[in-house]
Design goal:
Layout: H1 5-13, E1 32-36, E2 46-50, H2 52-58, H3 63-76, H4 78-87, H5 98-101
Antiparallel strand pairs: 1-2
């Protein structure tokens, strides 16, 4: 779907030019508009800015399905566990999205 420049600017301002999910910096000419869904089959009509990677990874999923998918990848991925062990970065018990950390 195509959005006007003013609508895209409004959506991007929700997070101060950051991806709603991972928090990476976004530019006004390169970001996706994601349809935020909290529950299956119940679109909220809420549009949020997302980076290309998060938008593709989330696809049609609700936010909780997306969280579960990420957690499964992180916790079952051998390289994540090895990296965590060698560089001392703990694997989080629960994936926390940027919007949750930022209180959006």
């Amino acid at each position: 779907m195509s959005y006007s420049d003013s609508r895209k600017d409004s959506i991007l301002s929700i997070t101060n030019c950051r991806c709603y999910y991972c928090g990476c910096e976004l530019s006004s000419d390169k970001f996706c508009v994601d349809h935020f869904k909290e529950q299956e089959g119940k679109p909220s009509g809420r549009l949020v800015p997302a980076c290309v990677e998060c938008n593709k990874a989330k696809s049609y999923m609700t936010v909780e399905q997306f969280r579960e998918r990420l957690q499964n990848v992180i916790f079952t991925n051998l390289y994540s566990r090895i990296t965590s062990h060698y560089i001392g970065v703990p694997i989080p018990e629960k994936v926390t999205f940027y919007y949750e950390k930022a209180g959006l």
